[in-house]
């Protein structure tokens, strides 16, 4: 379903639910990460892009001091009182907007007008494609429209991350919210997670296609696995005795090996290796060495499977199938993407062979696991934005990404 159909769906469902026309519609995309996994919270570099898949919210002020949220995902309309603190509550999905609304008010020193909103999505939920960051950014962008306040993009992404930390209890890094906020058509978002600076890397070669394969094995990042990995990396860095992973070499990890348990050692080896792989991947892209990029993606998967242990059988099977199709079949590289323990893989391939690759992934994955996967392609797309309805608010100086020269 494309964004226009999704928008139309949100606006018609809004009308059917609230018997009124939506006056403002906001959207924010999910993301897929090409390379650089589990290192955004280690001062690393990551290379995601905003997907064509979005969360779209159609809304209108309702003249009260209550937000009423309905969603195509079902369930009753949720009412949120906008006077006083907005606290966590049930249903759980509404904690994302609750957190964003609370922090939006706090950070901008404003009140929020009552409004009605209808939420639709084509970002697979639980697919490791940042449906939660998309939801947070879509709400924050909608609030910009409703209040006529335009936030600095970085501040808006950080606000969304804070909502994820405190209302969804996932101690995530900045990758997902930055990708959803800063995404641009035909560009990857290279994020320097030490400085917080995003750089747009052109990715417009029509001969290259990115396939996203959702294993349809759901992940739950708030159940402790993610936080445990983060803790492992903090322990590793403390033993190595440096302030930032950016200053750590593989030799430093080896020198500290005797003081670490095996798990901390392998987690540390992944972090240093993955930071290097992202830097090499950017160079490979700049020089059109796509085979080298593919090799780096494959190596990233091995490291995430064996050293960082955030893969699972189904992800490994999906990657194995892609890698066995190989370069002759048009596969350049394949790896698991996102937080892990389920979710999706990302496969870079030759565009002319994408359909055949998708068909093979589908059939072979289904026959090996008994699970029907959800597989699609996406080009790098635009970040969070107002689709319809205008905001005439005060403009703030925007933190803008740098841009590399076009490649490919
Ligand atoms: C989740 C988190 C991100 C990042 C990835 C792993 O998506 O939200 O901050 O850590 O996992 O790379």
What compounds sit in this structure? alpha-D-galactopyranose
Into which percentage range does the β-strand content fall?
15-25%
Strand line-up in the sheet with most strands: 5-4-6-3-1-13
CATH topology of the largest domain: Ribosomal Protein S5, domain 2
Q: At the first level of CATH, what is the class of the largest domain? A: Alpha Beta
Mean pLDDT rating: 95
CATH architecture of the largest domain: 2-Layer Sandwich
What pattern of helices and strands is seen along the backbone?
A: HEEEEEHEHHHEEEHHHHHEEHEEE
Poorly predicted runs are none
Q: How far is it from the N-terminal to the C-terminal residue, by CA?
A: 29 Å
User: What spatial form do the alpha-carbon principal axes imply?
Assistant: globular
Oligomer: single chain
Number of strands: 14
Biggest pleated-sheet summary: 6 strands, mixed
Number of domains: 2
Structural category is alpha+beta
Separate helix tally: 11
- Rounded to an integer in angstroms, the radius of gyration calculated over CA atoms is 21 Å
Helix fraction, binned, reads: 40-55%
Could you walk me through the main structural features you see in this protein, from its secondary elements to its overall organization?
- 40% of the residues lie in helices and 21% in strands.
- Helix 10 (313-325) packs antiparallel against helix 11 (354-369).
- Strand 7 (187-192) and strand 8 form a beta hairpin.
- It has a 6-stranded mixed beta sheet with strand order 5-4-6-3-1-13. The protein has a 4-stranded mixed beta sheet with strand order 2-7-8-14, sandwiched between helices.
- The chain has 11 helices and 14 strands.
- The chain folds into 2 domains: 3-203 and 382-395, 2-Layer Sandwich (Ribosomal Protein S5, domain 2); 208-378, Alpha-Beta Plaits (2-Layer Sandwich).
- Alpha-D-galactopyranose (GLA) is lined by residues 37-38, 40-41, 130, 172-173, 175-176, 338-339.
């Amino acid at each position: 379903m494309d964004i226009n159909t999704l928008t139309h769906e949100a606006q018609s469902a809004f009308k059917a639910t609230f018997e009124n026309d939506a006056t403002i519609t906001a959207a924010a995309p999910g993301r897929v990460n090409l390379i650089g996994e589990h290192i955004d919270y280690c001062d690393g570099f990551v290379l995601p892009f905003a997907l064509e898949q979005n969360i779209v919210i159609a809304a209108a002020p309702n003249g009260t001091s209550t937000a009423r949220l309905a969603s195509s995902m079902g369930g009753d309309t949720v009412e949120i009182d906008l006077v006083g603190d907005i606290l966590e509550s049930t249903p759980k999905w509404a904690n994302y907007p609750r957190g964003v609304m609370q922090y939006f008010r706090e950070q901008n020193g404003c009140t929020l007008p009552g409004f009605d909103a209808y939420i639709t999505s084509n970002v697979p939920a639980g697919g490791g494609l940042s449906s939660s960051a998309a939801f947070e950014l879509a709400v924050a962008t909608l609030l910009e429209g409703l209040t006529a306040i335009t936030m600095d993009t970085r501040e808006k992404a950080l606000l969304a991350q804070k909502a994820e930390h405190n209302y969804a209890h996932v101690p995530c890094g900045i990758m997902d919210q930055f990708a959803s906020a800063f995404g641009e058509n035909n560009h990857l978002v290279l994020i320097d997670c030490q400085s917080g600076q995003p750089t747009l890397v052109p990715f417009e070669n029509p001969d290259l296609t990115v396939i996203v394969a959702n294993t349809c094995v759901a992940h739950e990042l708030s159940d402790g696995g993610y936080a445990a990995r983060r803790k492992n990396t903090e322990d590793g860095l403390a033993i190595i005795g440096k302030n930032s992973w950016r200053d750590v070499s593989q030799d430093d990890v080896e020198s500290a090996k005797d003081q670490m348990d095996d798990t901390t050692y392998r987690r540390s080896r992944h972090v240093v290796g993955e930071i290097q792989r992202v830097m090499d991947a950017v160079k490979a892209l700049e020089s059109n060495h796509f085979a080298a990029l593919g090799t780096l993606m494959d190596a990233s998967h091995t490291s995430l499977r064996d050293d960082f242990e955030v893969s699972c059988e189904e992800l490994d099977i999906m990657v194995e199938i892609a890698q066995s199709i190989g370069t002759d079949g048009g596969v350049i590289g394949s790896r698991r993407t996102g937080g892990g323990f389920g979710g999706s893989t990302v496969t870079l391939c030759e565009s002319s062979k994408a359909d055949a690759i998708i068909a093979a992934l589908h059939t072979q994955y289904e026959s090996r696991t008994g699970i029907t996967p959800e597989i699609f392609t996406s080009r790098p797309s635009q970040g969070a934005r107002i689709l319809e309805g205008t905001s005439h608010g005060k403009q703030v100086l925007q933190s803008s990404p740098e841009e590399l020269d076009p490649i490919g």
